[in-house]
Design a protein that fits this description.
147 residues; alpha/beta; 5-stranded parallel β-sheet; 5 helices; 5 strands; 21% strand; globular
């Protein structure tokens, strides 16, 4: 059994849930997982689990929603066979928060769901996955949207 935790990047999207489920199928059951939601008061970069609309100026509300979203992601990870807990990471840009969290917690693998954005849309919105790949020394599992 692996001794290092898996860091699951979770933004509350259906794709992130699919990536969590797929990681559960690919990795050994019972492995520790940290479900990380990155937040920042000026840039709400996740979908709150309760569907509420957040105003970036209210940092406390954003942090609370990030914590709830991470806890929901941890529930999904547990259903996928992990021993999971959620963490809310305040960071900008998001990739930096994920890289820092992986290093801080000794993660042996990062897991992402990829939206496969390309062209102008991909350039304008950027890619947290691509930036993390470029900056992290931790191996990354990228799960694409099922066809």
């Amino acid at each position: 059994m692996a001794t290092t935790p898996v860091l699951l990047a979770y933004d509350g999207s259906e794709l992130a849930a699919v990536a969590t489920e797929r990681a559960g199928l690919e990795l050994e059951t019972g492995r520790e997982a940290l479900v990380a939601v990155v937040w920042h008061p000026a840039d709400v970069g996740f979908t709150p689990v309760d569907g509420r609309h957040l105003h970036a100026a209210t940092g406390v509300e954003v942090q609370e929603a990030a914590e709830q979203t991470a806890a929901h992601g941890a529930t999904l990870a547990e259903a996928a066979g992990f021993r999971a807990r959620g963490i809310a990471v305040e960071a900008t840009p998001a990739w930096q928060g994920l890289v820092d969290a992986a290093e801080e917690h000794g993660a042996g693998l990062l897991v992402f769901g990829s939206h496969r954005r390309s062209g102008l849309t991909g350039h304008l919105f950027g890619s947290v996955t691509a930036a993390t790949l470029a900056h992290s020394d931790v191996p990354v599992l990228v799960v694409h949207r099922p066809a």
